Amino acid sequence: MAEKIEAGSIVEGKVVRIKPFGAIVQLENGSQGLVHISQIANGFVNDINEHVAIGDTVKVKVMSIDQETNKIALSIREALPKAPKAQHQQNFKPKEHKNNYEPKAKQSDETAEPVNDFEEKMKEWLKQSNERQAGINKRNNRRNGGY
After folding, report:
1. How many helices (H) and strands (E) does the chain have?
2. At 69, is the pLDDT very low, low, confident or very high (cuts 50, 70, 90)?
């Protein structure tokens, strides 16, 4: 039944039934497959009838074939020609992210420098945290009348 078509191939078929969850398409070799509603178009599909009708000839990509159940998953969306990217997207360079962690070259003698660096950062964080908490407490005391 489905031996003549392979997953990944693009074939033509005819829409024979429409259900709320997708369209049943009869392929050239006589087998039928389902185009799920999510595979009808690139955008959101609220009503499948706005995109396909019974009797329409459509190009579909064979997504998968389940040999045991003879179910064929199809996609109209994947069979559509790829839209060329806009010029500004082709020149897009991802922004470099700076983080606080800079890997250091491994030193042959294990010094305590990374530990000291970590301890300094923890001290600074604790200081900032205490200052923020003091500010929060001060505002709360003002709101509550000094209690």
Report:
1. 2, 5
2. confident
CA distances from residue 23 to 6, 19, 30, 40, 104 in whole angstroms, order as listed: 20, 6, 16, 8, 57
pLDDT at residue 123 tops 70: yes
Give Cβ neighbours of residue 65 (< 8 Å, ≥ 6 apart): 2, 5, 6, 7, 71, 72, 73
pLDDT at 1: 46
- Taking a C-beta distance cutoff of 8 angstroms, is the pair 57, 14 a contact? yes
Consecutive H or E run containing 34: strand 32-36
Residue 30 is predicted with a pLDDT of 87
Give the number of other CB atoms < 10 A from CB of residue 2: 19
Amino acid at 111: T
